[in-house]
Design brief:
With 598 residues, this protein is of the alpha+beta class. 25% of the residues lie in helices and 35% in strands. The strands form nine sheets. Strands 17-16-15-18-19-26-25-24-21-22 form a ten-stranded mixed sheet. A five-stranded parallel sheet has the order 4-3-2-5-6, covered by helices on one side. Helix 2 (31-49) runs antiparallel to helix 13 (574-595).
């Protein structure tokens, strides 16, 4: 039996007992009033338990719903007249008490309710996948104010121990008070920047981690001492791989001397050969066993990942040795050529165009690592030799006027780099070791012989969350071999890209926050799973940008004039019944205690 029937039965029994007591009462005065008061009191009591609803009619657009997303102002929700829904993925807890129905999956909901033609979306909006499922519907956006916080962020998830860690992004301060943004790592403040009120400012933090392995820095936003954001920045510092380097020098200048010491200090296996006189050489072997370097051939070059040579030495060696170097570069070895004159002296170095400009005395050289958008400290040298970018070239190092000083080109399976910088050791002499390290570690990593089977790995989305879909995209060197992809010993089923056969992807739903172990062909590729509320401002800004792009490409497809008579059931306020019960009970008490005694 339903509860309401039990409540009615109990109230009827109570009413019968009350009426029986009234009729048995000796004093029959005011009997009618007492019976009416008893009926009213028990009736109101019953209606307090059992809600009473009534039917109303609302004229609204045909087949439209109101969808509440993150950022919706709770005060505006009460003004919405119509069917309100909220996505279960929304983080706004204050909206979940707005009597809006929850939707687990927007795509499935729209497919199940085929009569819906229009979506009224409040707040920051929908994700890219949710917007795709809403194509073909008339969309009406009611956007919220721009979020305050980090709306863009980028950093390298993996760095070598010799490189600096760089965090860059954009902070949007929509408030009326300034914000202090701090980068903290291992319990200490690394760097900070102030963001003015009602402004959007880029930020850039650079740090040289002293530890290796997994680490989590934090970006903390403070406003008058209060923490308004605290975002994790996970990354991995890897040991420098055993990259074998061969240097062939026409003479041991200061550039080679400092480079040789830096390579030794950073555990690079190094073979160094310097010419003393014709066909006579001085050799050094650091972090590796010695071998015969009197004659350079293909067998010798296969032992090394990078060859560094100046143009004078390249011209001095015989034709057979130059041919071996050219073939080795085409087969994967990295070739680094130092030049000092405007006129090329070998066919290898002649592949790159160069030019001279008048030297500006007492000037310093400002350098940028082009693809990393990173600036190096000014180099105190005079520079007049520069390079021209060819059609197939990729400039690596430029000055502040965008003139090229280090250029590169693919050569078969390898890469050739040519540099007109002759005195980078001045960074070390002026105490700028970090810039010297950034320069050489970047260039060596660009041209080193590729050894790993896994060429690249991408994770979508940028900030994976527990129990949400995550996609791994791996580019492999072997096209037709099915890769083995596992997460914590759970094997995934990879799919091959039909257009790019070397590319494979796999789908998973991570089960735990923090670091997770991913294995691709027994090669570990750890990744970080974030908490649900991490990087919320960035995600909300991404929704805003997706919304604006969607509006540019969308077309209304619904009938804008169609309206329908919607039936809505409203509940009668229980305060009326409570007031009736209170007045009736008060009258019965007053009549039996005061009027009767008079």
């Amino acid at each position: 039996m339903e509860f309401k029937y039990i409540a009615i039965l109990v109230c009827l029994i109570l009413l019968a007992f009350s009426l029986f007591k009234e009729f048995k009462r000796t004093d029959k005065s005011r009997l009618i009033w007492r019976i009416l008061a008893s009926v009213l009191a028990i009736g109101c009591f019953a209606l307090l338990i059992i809600p009473i609803k009534y039917e109303t009619h609302l004229q609204q657009r045909a087949n439209e719903i109101f969808l509440l997303t993150d950022g919706t102002n709770p005060d505006s929700v009460s003004k919405i007249k119509g069917k309100k829904y909220i996505l279960s993925s929304a983080n706004a807890t204050e909206l979940k008490s707005s009597k809006a129905k929850s939707i687990e999956n927007l795509s499935y909901f729209l497919k199940a309710n085929t009569t819906i033609k229009k979506l009224n979306i409040y707040g920051y909006g929908l994700t890219d996948s949710e917007l795709k499922s809403s194509k073909g519907y008339e969309i009406s956006f009611h956007p919220s104010a721009n979020p305050t916080g980090i709306i863009s962020a980028n950093w390298q998830p993996k760095i070598k121990a010799t490189k600096s860690f760089l965090v860059q992004g954009i902070f949007q301060n929509a408030g009326k008070k300034p914000v202090k943004l701090i980068l903290k790592g291992l319990g200490s403040t690394i760097d900070s920047v102030n963001i003015n009120a009602q402004s959007t400012s880029p930020f850039s933090f650079k740090n040289k981690p002293k530890q290796t392995g997994k680490a989590i820095y934090q970006l903390i936003a403070l406003q008058e001492g209060d923490t308004i954001a605290k975002e994790p920045v996970p990354f991995i510092v890897e040991e420098q791989p055993p990259m074998k380097v061969l240097i062939l020098a026409s003479f041991p200048d200061f550039e080679y001397k400092f480079l040789k010491k830096w390579l030794y200090d950073n555990q690079y296996p190094l073979a160094f050969r310097s010419q003393i006189s014709k066909n006579k050489y001085s050799t050094d072997f650091l972090n590796m066993d010695s071998l015969n370097l009197n004659r350079i051939n293909s067998t010798t070059l296969k032992r090394f990942d990078v060859l560094i040579i100046d143009e004078e030495e390249l011209a001095a060696i015989n034709t057979e040795e130059r041919s071996s170097i050219d073939n080795a570069a085409s087969n994967g070895m990295g070739l680094f050529i130092r030049i000092s004159t405007v006129k090329p002296t070998t066919t290898l170095s002649a592949k790159f165009s160069r030019y001279e400009t008048p030297a500006l005395k007492e000037k310093t050289l400002s350098l940028n690592i082009k693809d990393e958008n990173s600036k190096l400290t000014k180099l105190p040298i005079e520079q007049n030799l520069f390079l021209k970018a060819g059609t197939n070239d990729q400039p690596l190092i430029t000055d502040n006027t965008n003139k090229i000083l280090v250029n590169s080109r693919i050569s078969g399976a390898g890469k050739i780099i040519i540099s007109s910088l002759s005195a980078t050791y001045n960074w070390l002499l002026s105490g700028k070791k970090a810039d010297y390290t950034d320069y050489w570690s970047t260039l060596l990593s660009k041209i080193a012989r590729k050894k790993l089977e896994l060429q690249s790995l991408r994770i979508i989305p940028q900030f994976p969350v527990v129990n949400q879909k995550i996609r791994f995209i791996a580019d492999l060197s072997e096209e037709n071999k099915i890769p083995s992809i596992k997460i914590d010993d759970v094997k995934l089923s990879p799919r091959q890209n039909m257009e790019l056969p070397f590319q494979w992807d796999a789908i998973s739903w991570p089960q735990k926050e923090g670091w997770n172990n991913l294995s691709v062909n027994q090669l570990n590729q750890s990744f970080y799973v974030y908490q649900r509320n991490d990087w919320q401002s960035l995600k909300n800004q991404a929704k805003i940008e997706s919304r604006e792009q969607f509006l540019k490409n969308s077309v209304d497809v619904s009938d804008k004039n169609a309206k329908t008579n919607q039936i809505i059931y409203n509940e009668v306020s229980k305060w009326y019944f409570f007031a009736g019960f209170l007045l009736s009970a008060a009258f019965l008490w007053y009549e039996s205690r005061i009027i009767k005694d008079k």
